[in-house]
């Protein structure tokens, strides 16, 4: 097998020291050199409420120092099977949403062309749209969305269509996301209208409200999600506000009453074997995270997802 | 049906902007114009430990900006069936407990006379007593109390009888609360004496310790509470310290080991159909709430309770 | 004289209680009813670094509760000579900078048409541009700018011209600001280029670097500023980052080594008698203000400026 | 000379460890054993705005761990000339202001009878009144008051006369404070009325506004204060809100634009030789002090004042 | 029975006031006077990541003020059956790890000789090693370890063997801990190597990963732990990082996905009747605990454990 | 001239984004490639009170993003005259002080051999000793020390000689520091003994107490410092606790009453032209820095010092 990279040892420098990269991995510029590209996307210009997710990538990199190479349940490491590195932050424009979307798509198109699978640290949830514009060039992909919000509103503020609350609808409309192969897990919270989720439902999205999650249990959610997504290529988007804000207060639009981190870990682990072509962890907003736990949760979820991506990448490579 | 008010749209002003009122509802002065009066009661002069609940109403109003009009489980809105507005803060005196109690009772007597059902944002838990003095003029009412503490001590600090740890006992002694129709949910934490809760028990109060809550489960608690309270008029008091302080650290007397917010939501939803004549959410103390989650939980619970009150009010009106 | 409004008394409700308006003044919708309109402008879409100033208006309103009606040096109150009220938050769009600028200008044009002098709580510093587009319709106005930054860069992020670091240049280019009648007080901090401030200097702006402030002293700064601005109409813009971040950490682009709050107060007081037609206090970013002192400073500076505006308004009315 | 006590050495236990007492001094119960009694008075029931000073004594004790035995300017230690110990917290009632005042006065009368000079860590500023009722039994004393507020209002909230904003007026009315021998240093901030300080002025109090402080300079203030207070017995009360809130944000009623800590230190040092019979440091409110600097300033000022009290006590003993 | 001590009443001084000792108990110096010695061990020199546990004992003492004398489930008090007091902080050296270990062992050997059972508030987890060197002089003891980490690494940073990640291994190697009678509860988090826990497993330690905890449930964990530990003398060490960091963020090496506080309480209660000869609560790091909940959890767990120790001590005394 | 490096432009990535290096400079491994090496030294094992400076380098790197390339007074950039890069964190051992000192000295000896001038971000102040052991191999150097503490104690905790309070004494004793060419600026705060500073004084160190600083003024201090240090090689050590803790609360041993940041900037600027061979900024402790201002001040002072070092390096090169 090709050589892979491993996190810097903590023998010479303790884990709180040394360069700030995802999981203490090397920082590289060439996407062709990696199987999986870890990226930051410090953009929160699609935020309709509290901004701050622009500082998410840095906080996630710092918190990722706590993550060692091996998963304690599988006893395996993603670095055994995939070349993984920190590809830095994607370019964008914090002021102009239109140009930001274009810059992001162009950057991820480059990653795709180079054969790198992206795992992105947001940023607000709008970033999933330009990423999918780059990744779903061959047709719509399945979507597993951990989230408190459906993100299928049509527009905000008098007709504006590109926000972190509308991107899933745009993705479906643009043919990037296959609604029949889309599952949303943990939806809850008050709604603007009684039929707030109708677009998703009429489009065929499978919505698992938090009440469904408690009713089905983790195993039931996993089973349902695997049924919905099936065998084709799929993207995993993990909005930390799906988790209860006692665990993740540092986010722009918290909704009380979510699942625990352990439940989230178990659900993600249950997705092993899906054909994941990319993923993101979004909506970590450090200015609202006084204890830093949101960033720690986000970094841990990134690692859980990285393990899936590494195996999926290896499986595709055969 | 009569015209109702709805929260200000977030189309023109994002939810973090605009006037600070409960749920972005109009601010009115006339209680006769509303079915349900949302009030702040910024009083914490009955606090025996850490003060700060005086700042609760403001924090709850701010956090209530996150709450949209429709409940995601019922898909209904309280504003469909009731006229609801923000009636401002009730008058009180932060220094003299005696006068504070009098001012509060007089204010709520006015609300009652005008036909408005009050949902109050405290303040410390002592406020429930003067509110009940105004509301329970026709005889004792049932009480559903979510709380870590029984609040049935006799006195503090050498005989002082009016504190946030004695008000339930006072309410029973004064004939405002019917102990046989009273249920306390989530009681826990160390006690001053082995028989600390004897007054409650000998008076006939149904105490559900946190161990009972875990044993019975949410459905069992709901069933038991509905049995105890029965069909007559009842008041709901929600002390956020009933919830585990991981979710609600911003409170004066936290006790570890409580229920989750989702469990609290489910228990409150289970009380639908009771004849609620008023309610409060108390003990949110913002100076001890660095992440703001306690206020968010409090505001969400206010909305859950508002849904019950609106239906109860509509049912009484026929 | 016409009736004026006064802050709500703290006899019935302590100052931490009651509705959240600027200085506890009434909230009105009609600009024609006031001499001076206090407004919030919760917009930070022009921010090139740390966002958060969108939450400034709310924090400034809350902190303004600490401000009583009379100035302790003049022993006079602005409410003696002017009708002052809280006109709420101006409309804008948090996502689209272009539309935001248009909405703001339209709103302030309405205020101007109604004869109301605006004192605005930002928001980031970009807001000064659309405000001046509305106010300076009769020709360029003088500008007194308290700030660490000249805000005369040309563009950011590949040519974008509308940010909180470019608005003064735009204002000069658009003929809204008279550079000969413009003074900037407290400029400091590292620069992108050795000639970073050349546009300002070549345009004729008077730049008082922080070293100039210490060399001239408060009295010297005041004298110089009055010379520069002269007798014509002028606008005062107060960026809290002009003050040292020990006093005002809660801002997006702090620069160490600024003046103290007392020096700022003395400088503002020294501007009494200028023909001020409007003013703003900007760049208060509450997510970075753990002690709340930045908001308190901002609210106090708003009051100092309000005193000047009220006298100027009265003087113009004769 | 009699044996004195010295702070616990940091050789065996670092300064952050060990029992929590003022300056790491012994904790004693018998006031007759000491020359100077350090006490906490964890009472904030007289607070008209933000409570929290009840937690002041604990925070001041903790911060006092940073204070070593010798003053770096005088190179002398108060423990060389006086027996100083921590006498614990004075009894009070957090709920009933009337009883609180009685309990405090009784406790300090006991201290006075035992010959102990009290240096008190508040608590809110109302505590100065019951202390003076105990100490000024032989006639009115002089008062040196470091403060942003005159505290000579007549009443609050509909006639209530005992608050932290009225105690100096009460003290003058009750003949405890000699207004002719009273100086207030640092008064500033907006006022409820143009003549807000008229009681103080008409009674003969010397008010040094913050503008006077800057005009006179530290040496001038010291000279003026010494003239006013003269040779008779005097009490020193140090409200931390006299200092600018950049240094002391953790207080209930901050007013921007105050003096620095170094100026405060120099002014206190300038009072050496006055016949001080007691002192307090008040209004440290830890819930509003995220960095802890307010407590550190308060503890340092306590030490500066302790040095004066020790010398005054020694001088009286001859 | 011999006289015991009880916490200071809150009648004269509210619980937030008065001396800072564990559970408001008396502070004593003589270990022979007590059955159970509560101690602080403010040492974090064995920390490999974020320091701060040196401030744990003070925070735990402060938070222990919230704990009343009687357990709400058993309705009994440890003070009924055992003499319990605060013996202060153990001596150590914050700079030199070698001397620190020696000083600690010597101090606890003195406690053992005096017949006092120690319940220690750490400090980082390395402190368990020198404590066991003093307590396990008669042979290895059983160990119940609540923890996210096994702490059986061999060395860090190029061969250093004494850290808070190696002490359990050292304890087994030195014959202080009987691995066959050792159970670790809650182990989780990423690992340095796939076989990271091999030392523990090959030595015979029973490891209950967090997945095991969820699979077995609280009752199952308790049953398993009791089987493993059996009837002989045992030591209980409670690392707060075993609990999920939503409850306990204030710790040096947080691992997401842990058990709740209520589960921890239930597991500890299930250990009643074991022959416990000492215990500690470690890794509370206040600088990372903005809400203070970690300290509150720690203090509550100390009380739960104290109840076990008191009964075990009484049982041994017969 | 040789090619130099410049900070990453903020055109493509805003300053809050991108890799975390000092001043956004490249990260290099080879000291021979640079004139000036920026390093982190995340070690706080010499701390006698509150630890946390181990996190200083990361916080300083992050805050350094605010620093642009050109100095606003000189209008020059250090990158014009010197090759400057981020050389990463120096190796050390957080647990064993002896080995830590050896590793540090070895690393800096390598820098010196390669011809790189080090500017170090601490870490606690002990790090200056091992750095000087590497740099002062040709004889004692002059020392300019900005600090609240003399750091010339002999030992702590029973004879331990290597702490952040003893390193200057060690440096003099070891012949690394020339006391006659040493000036300490800002010394203040209480002392362990009346003669606490006698070692420094008897050795010939020039101590400028804070009172001297205010008496002499900035210009006087600069003149005195230049006289003392003279023309030979000198090292500049900047402990942020020399600055008042209102500006720099995030430090282990704060002392109130220090100079302002602007005064510190002016004093450092006054040292231009000295033959500086290295420098450090120490004692930034992020866990005690809630607003982040301490890190911002530290990063700004690093830049001020970098300007001096670059010129000195260029002058030596001729």
Automatic annotation (TrEMBL), chains A, B, C, D, E, F:
Its cofactor is Mn(2+). It comes from the Bacteria. Mn(2+) binds at residues 125, 147, 149, 151, 239, 241. GO terms for biological process: putrescine biosynthetic process from arginine, via agmatine. GO terms for molecular function: agmatinase activity; metal ion binding. Keywords: Hydrolase, Manganese, Metal-binding. Binds 2 manganese ions per subunit. It is an enzyme of class 3 (hydrolase). Its EC number is 3.5.3.11. CDD domains: Agmatinase_PAH. Belongs to the arginase family. Agmatinase subfamily. PANTHER family: ARGINASE/AGMATINASE, GUANIDINO ACID HYDROLASE, MITOCHONDRIAL. This is Agmatinase.
């Amino acid at each position: 097998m090709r050589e892979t990279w491993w996190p810097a040892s903590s023998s010479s420098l303790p884990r709180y020291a040394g360069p700030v990269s995802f999981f203490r991995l090397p920082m590289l510029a060439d996407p062709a050199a990696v199987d999986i590209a870890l990226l930051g996307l410090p953009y929160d210009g699609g935020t309709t409420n509290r901004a701050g997710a622009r500082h998410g990538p840095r906080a996630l990199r710092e918190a990722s120092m706590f993550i060692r190479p091996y998963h304690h349940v599988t006893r395996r490491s993603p670095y055994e099977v995939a070349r993984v590195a920190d590809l830095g932050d994607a370019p964008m424009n914090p002021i102009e949403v239109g140009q930001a979307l274009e810059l992001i798509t162009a950057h991820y198109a480059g990653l795709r062309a180079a054969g790198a699978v992206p795992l992105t640290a947001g940023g607000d949830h709008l970033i999933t749209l330009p990423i999918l514009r780059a990744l779903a060039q061959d047709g719509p992909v399945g979507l597993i969305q951990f989230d408190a919000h459906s993100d299928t509103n049509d527009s905000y503020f008098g007709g504006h269509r590109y926000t972190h609350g509308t991107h899933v609808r745009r993705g479906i409309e643009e043919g990037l996301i296959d609604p029949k192969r889309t599952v949303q897990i943990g939806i809850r919270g008050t709604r603007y209208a009684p039929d707030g989720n109708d677009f998703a439902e009429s489009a065929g999205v499978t919505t698992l409200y938090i009440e469904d999650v408690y009713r089905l249990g983790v195993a039931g959610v996993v089973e349902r999600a695997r049924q919905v997504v099936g065998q084709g290529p799929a993207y995993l988007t993990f909005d930390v506000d799906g988790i209860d804000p006692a665990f993740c207060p540092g986010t722009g639009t918290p909704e009380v009453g979510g699942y625990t981190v352990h439940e989230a870990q178990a659900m993600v682990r249950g997705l092993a074997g899906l054909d994941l072509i990319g993923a993101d962890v979004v909506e970590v907003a450090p200015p609202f995270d006084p204890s830093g736990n949101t960033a720690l949760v986000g970094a841990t979820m990134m690692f859980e997802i990285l393990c899936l991506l590494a195996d999926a990448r290896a499986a595709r490579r055969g």
